[in-house]
Amino acid sequence: MITCRSVSLPTPTHGHLYCRTLYVAEDAAELVTVEYDELGAVTAARAALEPDAPLLHEDAGSNVATDRTFSFGPVEQRFRDAAHVVTGRYDFPRYSSVPMECYSVIAQWNEGDGGPSVEAWANFHGPFSMVR
C-alpha cells in the first residue's frame, strides 16, 4: 500500500505502475483502489491568507509564496506631511505576461577604489524582478 498525505494534480492521473509486461500491468491495475479524503478549498486570494485557510502545499506552512515590501525615502514622513491621504483596499487580478521580445540582462564587472561592483542593464524594469 502506498499512502500520500496530499496530492495536487492538474490531470486525472493518479499514479503509475511499472511492470515487466503489459499483461502484468493490466492485472495489477485492477487491484488498485484509490481513496480520497476531501480537503477544503479556497477560491479567493484574500481567503487563502486567513490563518485557518487550507494550505495548498502543507510543507510550505503558508499560502504566501512571497512577501516583499518596497520603501523609498521617508515614507511615513511623507504621509504625515501630505495635505490629503487616501486609504483603501486594492486588489490586483491574476495576470500573465507574454512578452513579444526576449528578456535579457547585460552586466559589467567593475573593480574600483570603493571595491568591486556590478552594473547591470535589463530590458525589464519591474519592481519585483530587478533588485538593487
Termini gap: 51 Å
Please provide the ordered H/E string of secondary-structure elements: HHHEE
How would a crystallographer describe the biggest sheet? 2 strands, antiparallel
Query: Which of globular, elongated, flat, extended, rod-shaped describes the shape?
Result: flat
Q: What order do the strands of the largest sheet run in, or round the barrel if closed?
A: 1-2
The average pLDDT is 79
Task: List the main descriptive attributes of the protein structure presented here.
alpha+beta, 132 residues, 3 helices, disordered N terminus, 2 strands, flat, two-stranded antiparallel sheet, 15% helix
How does the SSE layout of this entry go?
Layout: H1 22-30, H2 45-48, H3 75-81, E1 105-112, E2 115-122
Description:
The chain is α+β, with helices and mostly antiparallel strands and about 130 residues long. The protein is built from 3 helices and 2 strands. The chain has helices at about 20-30, 45-50, 75-80; strands at about 105-110, 115-120. Strands 1-2 form a two-stranded antiparallel sheet. A hairpin with a 2-residue loop joins β1 (about 105-110) and β2 (about 115-120). Mean pLDDT is about 80; it is low at about 1-5.
Briefly say what this structure is:
The protein is an alpha+beta fold.
